[in-house]
Predict the 3D structure of the following.
Amino acid sequence: MALIECPECAHKISDQSSACPKCGFPTKETQKISRQKDLNDENRNIQPQSKPVFQALKLIIIIIFIGLLYFLISSYFGYEEKPKQYGQKNFSEQVDSSYIPIPMLLTGAGENGHYFLISHTKNNGIEEIKYMRKDNVFDSYGKMEINCLDNEIRKYSATSLSGLQSGNLSRWYKISPEADWTDQDIVNFVCKSQSVLEQPQSNREKNIVEEPVSTSETFISIPMSDSHENGRYFLTSHITEDEVENIKYMRKGDIKNSYGKMQINCAENQIKKYSSDNTDALQSANMGDWVTPTPDWTDQDIVNFICN
């Protein structure tokens, strides 16, 4: 027999009694409450032992969730950033520096900066070239034979440079400037380069340069790395003498054109130059001393174009 406390009046009573002799509270209810109290005490003793394990497990789950979330977010923004960087208009850092940009003057800004001349040879009066079109998704390549006198071409395109080797050129056909804009731009660039670079031998010996027609459409566009200056510079004459390139060029301004002449030592990357607002002043101008052109400026763009 044991004494228990009556839950009603707190009087000590026997656990064998059927009711509290003082207040009449049933003993069975007292035993039930006592057993519940003992059970609660046991739970309180067990809980502190299991709580650290539960907290550690909870912390591990949270860490795993945060890590997974970070991975998903990083992967998403990394995937979005790659096409964004590759889709920039300036491909100068992604293209072999030996390739020459082909200006798209007829086609327009949408294609300008995408075409590059890879190789150029001449055989029996026919210009034979290979070129590349740099795109946001994939690059394409082409080879073309050009008859400058008749404005006729035949060409073949492929998805790789090696694919051009076994490709058969199409039949000769006359291109339409209104329909075949990019083809006409390529023809203009290649054919006008030949008309300027291949001057009569008598002029080379006498170092005499015939003044060009006063319209930029007959000149060769000099690509500029600066988008604001691109499309403004045009080569008007070019003579090589004693391993020095002697050129004249024009800058087409919004209000007024300017002119310059330059001597270029390609091997040393050195130049002499003189600029004026009229072509007459270029004849007797003092070229000054040899200097190194400033990188990323228009002078360096001109040197790269001539020397490449």
Q: What stands out?
A: The longest strand covers residues 115-123. Residues 62 and 88 are 40 Å apart (CA to CA).
